[in-house]
Amino acid sequence: MASKVVALPIVGMVLSECAQVGLMIVSKAAMSDGMSSLLFIFYSNALASLLLLPISFIFHRTQRPALTFSVLCGFFLLGLLGCLIQVFGYAGIYYSSPTLATAMLNLVPAFTFILAVTLRVFWHDRMEILDWGSSTSLAKTVGTIASLVGAFVVTFYDGPSLLSTSSLSNVSYKKLLFQQSNWVIGGFLLLVDAVMTSVWVIIQASILKKYPAELILVFFYCFFVSILSAVVCLFVERDLSAWSLKSRTRLFSVLYSGVFGSAFQVGVSTWCLYRTGPVFVSMFKPLGIVISVAVGVIFSGETLFLGRLLGAIIIIVGFYSVLWGKATEAKIDKDLVSSLESSTDQEPLLQNSNEEHNSFVQKIRS
Fold first, then answer.
1. Do the beta carbons of residue 106 and residue 152 sit within 8 Å?
2. pLDDT per residue over 334-358, tens digit each?
3. Cα–Cα distance between 150 and 32 in angstroms, integer?
């Protein structure tokens, strides 16, 4: 039964990471076609906002929390930080490659885990409690480290070749996926992107505690990102021809990014974040490098090396460790809440402290 607690979030995050890898590839294609990264950010988030506006308010039509000024300020902060993340991320992809960008995202779980344990952002209780005497905390910690190690094994160690497939695509695709223009600049920009992404995930989780309407949050996030990027584009991109989407590559990239990159990917990851927490969501970032390796082997005829297979196995072991820890914690919390509620019903002498007890139960549930 405990495994069912995280079954849907697992599927959601796998699909989200697949969409993320595709986003990196199409964004590189659009920028290689001469499209500005700022315009790419504007178009994709504007399209996502138009899609999410009716969907979010229809989905949350029965239970829609009040939009207070502080909540709107939180949405704007998410949009501002998200805009900077996309600027640094797409610039890093432009100067390097989607493969390096996927590899650098492997740093997100470590940064997020550290922040979730040590920092208190907008709340008084920690989102992830690290108890070295607890088997669940130890499993999550070991799993996080194992996933990071596996991701870097996939990235930096090849070993002997195991499988070589015939190329199913042209040479230009292979260059698009693996070319590196300026590894140092691109790597630095992607490092900043990984740090800010970890902070963004933590802040997003704290806002969801106050405003548990995931799709509305994603709508306002995309809306503010599109507004901020549009303001910058009006000053930077004075040439009207730069705004053109006549190119099929640009049009397809924007459509994919708006539908799958922003609306779907951010929406699904936010839904998973609300139900599982920031550490669980960030744990799936190393899966991106496995997906990108699979894309390389299947579609561009890349050779499958022992190091990539070994790294993938280590990542899977790390995933299982973290998922077991999260599922076990969820079961323990559920049993504890049920036990406390049962003890209250059976012991009338405790009714005098009912208010204090209910507050404690509510904290456990949250």
1. yes
2. 666 666 666 655 554 444 444 444 4
3. 31
Q: Which residue in 219, 213, 188, 260 sits closest to 82, CA to CA?
A: 219
Dihedral sign from CA coordinates of 348, 349, 352, 355: negative
CA angle 22, 262, 150 (to 5 degrees): 50
Reported as half-sphere exposure (CB side, CA atoms, 13 A), residue 122 has a value of: 16
C-alpha–C-alpha distance, residues 121 and 124, integer Å? 8
d(CA 271, CA 260): 15
Please state the pTM of the whole predicted model: 0.71
Tokens describing residue 78 = 């998410």
Q: Per the structure block, which two tokens stand in for 115?
A: 């922040």
* Burial bucket for residue 174 (CB in 10 Å: 0-12, 13-18, 19+): middle
Highest average pLDDT, of 28-32, 150-154, 275-279, comes from 28-32
Q: Is the CB of residue 257 less than 8 Å from the CB of residue 45?
A: no
What is residue 302's DSSP assignment?
Answer: P
**How far is residue 32's CA from residue 256's CA, in Å, rounded to a whole number?**
16
In angstroms, what CA-CA distances link 29 with 8, 12, 332, 335? 32, 26, 47, 51
Q: What is the pLDDT of residues 146-179, one digit of tens each?
A: 877 876 776 677 777 766 554 444 444 444 444 5
3-state secondary structure of 303: strand
As a whole number of angstroms, the distance between CA 193 and CA 325 comes to: 28
The single-letter code of the amino acid at 230 is A
Q: Which of 166, 191, 109 is nearest to 142 (CA)?
A: 109
Q: Which of 269, 291, 358 is nearest to 9 (CA)?
A: 269
Task: Check: CB of residue 31 under 8 Å from CB of residue 40.
Answer: yes
